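During the no-cost extension, the postdoctoral fellow (Dr. R.K.) reprocessed legacy sequence entries with the updated structure-token encoder. One reprocessed record is reproduced below for audit purposes.
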Amino acid sequence: MTTARLAVDIGGTFTDLALEHGGQRSTVKVLTTPAAPEQGVMQGLRTITAAAGIAPADIALIIHGTTLATNAIIERKGARTALITTEGFRDVLAMGNESRYDQYDLNIVLPEPLVPRYLRLPVPERLDNTGAVLLPLQEAAVTALIPLLQRENVESIAVGLLHAFVNPVHERRIAAILRDALPDSPVSLSSEVSPEMREWERFSTTVANAYVQPLMARYLRRLEADLHAAGAVAPLFLMMSGGGLTTIDTACRFPIRLVESGPAGGAIFSARIARECGLDSVLSFDMGGTTAKICLIDGYTPQTARSFEVARIGRFRKGSGLPLRIPVIEMVEIGAGGGSMAHVDTLGRIAAGPESAGADPGPVCYGRGGVRPTVTDANLVLGRYDPARFAGGSIPLDAAAARAALLADVGTPLGLSAEHAALGVLEIVDENMANAARVHAIESGRTYQGRTLIAFGGGGPVHACRVAEKVGINRVLVPSGAGVGSAIGFLRAPVGYEVVRSLYQRFSSFDVAAVNDLLDDMRQEAEAAVAKGSFGAPTVEMRTAYMRYVGQGHEIPVPLPQAVLGQEDVAAIRARYDREYARFFDRPVPGSDVEIMSYAVVVTTVPAGVTAVAPPGNLFVTETVPVCTRAVLDTATGAVADWAIHDRTTLTPGARIAGPAIVLETETSTLIGPGWSAAVNALGYIEITR
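Re-encoded structure tokens follow.
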């Protein structure tokens, strides 16, 4: 019986594939095909199976992650969507919570709702905060909306009613009426998509789900059909933003849970590498073609969050985007990738990103019609890439074209050579990433002292040493397969599902029985979702409560015991909250009661065990011979020197390299800067220390 498993990660520039079969791993990068992403997947499938000497029918499992849902929201290319809501609340999407992400900008621009006002349709009904019916649903008002929905060619419908997270009866009745009259129009219910209090976030998440649902369902079904036509009939699983895998049916129903699927795979990849190497405090650094992602991992577990913003008006500014209440691995995403375009701004400063050349036309050096210089062009001009081996040799690079573009757009306006223009571009990009990392650590209440930076993605190993220098990290780890790290992470992800619900409680009047009933219902729902793809594998459950002092505006997560709660557990949970609060804000608030706003239950299959490897010092040290030397301009000093060039395929465990040097491989390059040295550990990972 075959055990081959395939992972596919569609990014903004490259589609990465990783295939594990017979104890071996094959990887490949192909350019993403934005107009029809499944075409790039199928091209990669043909390439990787041919290289591995297997047929698509030999694949036992396919795991997929994609940015398609995110891009549809950012580019406003989703379905024509309507929102049916409680009478008097049609403007919740536009009003939000009335906060301003820039208090002093008199001309502030806020994100436009995905549904225009004339398609936000109120119906008479009302529930109170306990779910009791104050005003019965007027079904005739719902039926009267059907001609309007047909006339406006509405493709997808969101239903968000006040307090539906407590009692979904009215939402479910509206859905039944709509499905009878409009069977081809998918309906998203807030009580299913995001059953939590705070109507703005709940409505926004439900609308976003409805907005991308037709697009994602069509794409996933096309991909499934193309895979089957090629002979790959293995089950297809989708990577979710929270780090678990789900079935294609669930993904088609709740595609909003896929918005951060690619970056989530990268965080899982880093967590696995950290466990293998016994590193309990790391910084995951994933730099691809369009963005860079930074995630803190402690105790081999990535940070998670309950909220996320997409399509920010103020790039990377909290509060300027559309809020989504979904389980997500918490990270900061920066518009700094290989395709980030460089220019001189109106103040005469070098700037790079967030605009990206993407896969089409791509960087100038790709020779596909790009005219504006990018980070990849700058790295090539400085000698960091081998033009003949980039992306496995599938994309020969044109260094002369890259040099000319850098000179035209950056060098000439500032009186710099092409090389020094490239140096400036890379220094700006590195500083942008380092600054985002610093802010992320501060916001998370953590530091970088003693951490190891795990670098992957096509650009991560190229920029890792310089970013590490800037944030004060003295150790960098570049695992094998780094260029397609997120795809490999998919192969390590458990099948899992998270259920979140709200049930307002205070410790002073904590109803243990009600909470136990809620948690048990949530566990059953999560287990049912996981059972569809776990194939009987053992599972583990994790419970979390989101709490705050009475009167505060935001909650912090606190783990709960996995057993049935007793009255004796209440004091212990309260003490745990006080400790967590003190970790974030230095000290607890004595005498204040605590309120619990919502609960989360996660059920996942049990991940395979990992054994830590021996440190390089216990290995036989071997001399390494470079394949050649190359003149490289160092971004830290601006000096040009001959750097040793090594081929990663020739490096064996125990090999040591003194910087400055470059290690070339199929999907990326690893820079070992001046003042750094590298050793290869027992797994073949490159450990770089300063």
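The radius of gyration is 26 Å. The longest helix spans residues 199-229. The remaining legacy entries will be reprocessed before the final report is submitted.
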